[in-house]
Sequence to fold (163 residues):
Amino acid sequence: MASTSSIPAMALVVALMLVLGSGTCCHAARRLADGTAEATAPAAVPGIPALPKPTVPAVPTVPSMPAVPAVTVPPMPAVPAVTLPPMPAVTVPPMPAVPTVPVVPTVPSAALPPVPAVVVPTVPKVTLPPMPSVPAIPKVTLPPMPSIPGVPTMPFLAPPPKA
Fold:
């Protein structure tokens, strides 16, 4: 089953096949075929004997099939008519009366006190002292590793620095 991530990929592959398969290559081949002259039979090359035309054996004829005898099928019997007994009358009890919904009392309007204004204190501007410079780490150069004859040199990770 295709997952949801492979559906867009499959659609892209199909679209690329359609674009590349029906591109200008086919039209170029048609134009080339229309513009070129019919190919002539090659001339006999001296020194190479001509091959005789191969003989193709005749295809044997297929024997005729025997006639299929006609089969007579007896007529289908008529389906008997079925009469169903009358359906008994069903009496449904009357629907009970829906009770009336009581009237919702109105809420008296209340006077609310005014909302006090929120005062946001101002933040003083702070200046930070300049950051001290970090001393530069000296670069350490290692001497070249001597080659050991018969042992292939392979790259490896340097050991961790000692604390």
About this structure: The mean pLDDT is 79. Helices lie at 6-21, 24-35.
